Amino acid sequence: MAGEEESDKKNGFKVLGILDVQNTPCAREALLHGSGGSLAAGLLHFLATSRVKRSFDVGFAGFMLTTLGSWFYCRITNAQLRMQQRLIQDGIKNKVMYEGTSLDTISKPKEQEPSL
Amino acid sequence: MAHPSQLGFQDAASPVMEELLHFHDHALMIVLLISTLVLYIIVAMVSTKLTNKYILDSQEIEIVWTVLPAVILILIALPSLRILYLMDEINDPHLTIKAMGHQWYWSYEYTDYEDLGFDSYMVPTQDLVPGQFRLLETDHRMVVPVESPIRVLVSAEDVLHSWAVPSLGVKMDAVPGRLNQTAFIASRPGVFYGQCSEICGANHSFMPIVVEAVPLEHFEKWSTMMLEDA
Questions:
Q1: Which structural domains are found in chain B, ordered by start?
Q2: CA distance B106 to B141
Q3: Where in the cell is it found (chain A) (predicted)?
């Protein structure tokens, strides 16, 4: 099982020989959104103006903007999730360590009644 | 550790290395988009039939290709500086270990509580057992507790060395007569390999570093055992 995962990681597809799309979070989605945006923008421009070369330029600009936008949005969301995950992990660790003590933020230890 | 013909980073074993990996992906995506843009422009320039021998200047395009690179550089610089200062944060270490570089081995000193020190030599190829890694294994590993901030003071006894563990995101030069400090937190238990990263003589390639992160109780048992053996 571990061997199969390792071979998948080794064989990740690199766009332009640079970006490993399979193993980089958000990369695949960003490129797919970019391709869709590029197609839509180029096609709409061509349908409106019938200018082929300019439509290619517009399509490419659409690719750049959509890829960047999707990439940043996905990365920011990812970063926020990672931050929350770390806070939850620390919270669980602190809860386990300090439960029943005065440092427990959730449940305070019961006050003992003075004996008569 | 690295697998054969690996080009990218190893999996992160510390929070700092995770951040470095994410920053690397971010910078690489920007590089990819710039490369695609340049490629597209080259193809467009080569395939166009339009020519104009009398173009002198154009304010608009000059503004675009000045402002846009500045914006791109800011987009790269901001996360980069964030990580730079994150790596320099004072993090109240639970343990301090001294790593001293020698020709050609590392020695580790755990002097916080008791006087514990040992040398770490590479296991020669002929002495390896099946499952061990060639040129990476050592006879004694630097054992640390997992999820604890560890401070490493790096120096050298003879010539320049460098203490590096890629999966922990740590590299620090070992300079004779100077004490350099670095810190890391091993976020998961495991064995993490590194190699000397400053040319130091004939056996520079044969003085690896092995860090073993274990739960605290295992670390305590290990340190007790090492003290008894000493």
A1: 13-86 (1.10.287.90), 93-227 (2.60.40.420)
A2: 10
A3: Mitochondrion inner membrane
In chain B, whose CA is at the least distance from the CA of A65? Answer: B33
- With a cut of 50, say whether residue A25 has pLDDT above it: yes
DSSP string, B29-45: HHHHHHHHHHHHHHHHH
State the residue range of the domain holding A89: 25-94
Does any domain span residue A18? no
Count: domains in chain A: 1
Domain assignment present for residue A79? The answer is: yes
pLDDT at A3 over 50: no
- Which one, of A27, A7, A26, A4, lies nearest residue A16 by Cα? A27
Which of B5, B18, B32, B36 to mutate to probe the A interface, most A CBs <10 Å? B32
Report CB contact under 8 Å: A23, B44.
Answer: no
Task: Indicate the pTM of the whole model.
Answer: 0.83
Tell whether A4 is covered by a domain: no
